[in-house]
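Because discrete structure vocabularies remain unfamiliar, it helps to consider an illustrative case, giving the amino acid sequence and backbone structure tokens:
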Amino acid sequence: MTDETTDVSTTKTACIVVRNVPLTNVIGFGSDGCNVMMGDHDSVKTRLLRDLPGIIITKCVCHSAHLCSSEACKQLPESVEQLARDIYNFFKHSDKRQFDFRNFQSFAAVEPHKILKPSQTRWLSLLAVVERILEQWEALRLFFIDFTTNPTHREKADVRNRAVFILEKLNNPFYKLYFCFLEWSLPLFNKFNKEFQSEKVVVHNLHGKIRELYQEILLRYLQREYVMRPNLSEIDPENKRHQLHDAALYLGVKVYELLKHPDVVKRPADITHHFPTLMPLIEVVPRIIAPADNAKKQVIDDQWRSLPNAQARYPKGLNEICEPDKFWAHLLKTEDFCELARFALSTLSLPHANADCERVFSKVNLIKTDIRNRLTVETVNGTLLAAEGIKGPTRNGNCVNFEPSKEMYSGHIGSRENGIICVPGTRPGSQPAATGR
């Protein structure tokens, strides 16, 4: 593996990672795709191919994924990236502006984080810049309103014009939509890059991960039936006949929320979305997912959308489970779908009837009859607990096939020593057993 520095010095430094292998034993070479390394004329690649016939040459997959995402971002208006640079440059050399900005951060109740610098050569920096600007959006907007309207700020005309330009963009909801879209789409590349920056042996996962990444990208704007073909080479990414309609495009939770705002659409009620999303269900259960927790909403929605494409990650035998609670309980054990499974189980726990309560009332009437009308509340409660404990976790047990566990025996013996008889399935000290009268 080899690379060269990109610092401000005039002398460039090359770094070659060699794991104690003689040059004659080298079988592979990996680098980024610059001409010095991978060019067709007098590059490191051509010299290695000349001196070491049969050597395997590969371009760095992390660099390639970063270049793909950077090239895709160029399809957005240039002013979006320029806004990030202008905000950083506005605060970069002014301690006074940074100090004043902290007051607005405190007023907007956001963390006092610094604005990050967009970098062209750092793979994972773009997402951090986008997330930081979105986090500080309201504080930035208030700061620039004050800077451009407060007469106490005596700045040069060009500085004030820069501030006015930035404020116009911060007040434009479509710029926030662009940043929200980037915050949703960039993690797909960042996750891929992190996996292959590991020092562990991961080359055996390369083909599967690249296929999965490519498929995820295609599913965001092409029809599922077209993308899920066994042979991905048959898919034309530019085939307009299989592209999704605008109403079926999914662009993330924050974009979904902003599209309902009257500043973005004059009549939000006229917009109908046909893309697969759990957002309508999530909005109905604010006690499970807080309305302001967009990060968790996005994680759950992304896991739900990727569930049909991740059969290889399913727990063994999951597809044979018919009961929904058991299905999600098994999926809860997986790392990739745990948040989705937790949300599904919480939703399934919502009560739909009070039949269980009515059954308990019927049991009470059977226990406390006219003849046994002197039974105390504690005795009735203990009898009900014993009946429930005998059913066991499967709810199919009865007094004929019930087998007390070792914990029940130990609790029963300990309770007898203290003068208390423990109910099977309960803890000592909770409720006494029904002894009858």
Notes: The chain has a mean pLDDT of 82. The first strand starts at residue 2 and ends at 4. Strands lie at 2-4, 14-16, 28-31, 56-59. The chain is about 50% helix and 5% strand.
